[in-house]
Amino acid sequence: MQQAQTLRGRLILSHHLPALVLPVLIQYPSMGRSPCCDEKGLKKGPWTPEEDHKLMNYIQKHGHGSWRALPELAGLNRCGKSCRLRWTNYLRPDIKRGKFSKDEEQTILQLHSILGNKWSAIAKNLPGRTDNEIKNFWNTHLRKKLIQMGIDPMTHRPRTDFFAALPQLIALANLHQLIEQQQWDGHTTMLQTEMVHAANHQYMLQSAASIAPNPTTTSSLNSLTTDLEQISLLNPQHMLSPTLLESTGSEDVSRQVPHNIMQSTFFDQPDSNINLSSDKNVSSSEQCHVEGGSSRQKSLFLSETSLPPLTDMSASNPCNVISTSKCVASSTLSPSWSEILLDEELMREFE
DNA sequence: AAGCGACGCAACCGCCGAGAC
DNA sequence: TGTCTCGGCGGTTGCGTCGCT
């Protein structure tokens, strides 16, 4: 019954609304979340053709003005925010709908490699497309496409994290095994506490490093570094990797691992004779096979093992937080796929 | 034909910055 | 300076559709 009424409304409206809006109305009434009750009694959920008609009529006659005041003036039982969203993402007459062209797709890919998830900024370069539409297109199509091509959708560079993460995975497996064996009961609690601290510090460093260097962030980083050094001083056996300390401020921080975790895990035992990798396929630089050796050797070994985060940390994408020029500059380290594959002219526009 | 999972996308949520007071 | 309002933005949700078994 309700469906029949909606359908009727759809057919009647189809004679009155601009041609651009008609394809939109075909999709009623199914999309979006199910309505839920609001404390103020305002309606939520999918918009009906009647509501759209009211909103369009009002804005075409009076402009939107104050979005907060609009619903009452237009006779809508919606919040202003909902009206604004509906207008900007759906009803605006200049919205271009339908499939994205190859050109649009390439533009999105290139702009995303430069700007990151700045959908509104990307949308400004694609007339008629909304940020929401571009975001959806990215999440449902382009992102998957890049992943299938073996390209990290956030960095736009070939993914290497799995192989680079192998030593870390192996280390974690060993850590688990060691804790279960409880060979060093007294150390376990302390170690776990330190692991939490180290993880926190790593996270803070990653966040700080993703911000463009300036006096404030530099001092913060120095403070963090000092903090990390203090941890290692309190626990000399948990030496920190020089690369971790030196890399504050570079995007490579996100690829470091709390080395005090690694080292305390592997070497606190009286007889550290731990075979961390029996996999012959792992390259020599990634092998974690350590038998005895001096502490200097052990330290060197670990400091040279650069490890990525196991999760896809969007925060580590410099393009999410820093300026375009910084991103382009960082892209000179190694060419991103878009620099190789896509239109050079467009790339130059953003350099 | 029915069941089921993946997909697509409109709409909501929560946060943030700008501006007014 | 602090608070409030408003608009904008990015992330997430949830439901209908589609395609496969």
From TrEMBL:
InterPro entries: Homeodomain-like_sf, Myb_dom, Myb_TF_plants, SANT/Myb. Residues 270-287 have a biased composition (Polar residues). Residues 39-91, 92-142 form the Myb-like domain. GO terms for molecular function: DNA-binding transcription factor activity; transcription cis-regulatory region binding. Keywords: DNA-binding, Nucleus, Repeat, Signal, Transcription, Transcription regulation. GO terms for biological process: regulation of lignin biosynthetic process. It comes from the Eukaryota. GO terms for cellular component: nucleus. The keyword Lipoprotein does not apply. It is found in: Nucleus. Residues 39-91, 92-146 form the HTH myb-type domain. Residues 270-300 are annotated as: Disordered. Residues 1-32 form the signal peptide. It holds the Pfam family Myb_DNA-binding. This is Uncharacterized protein.
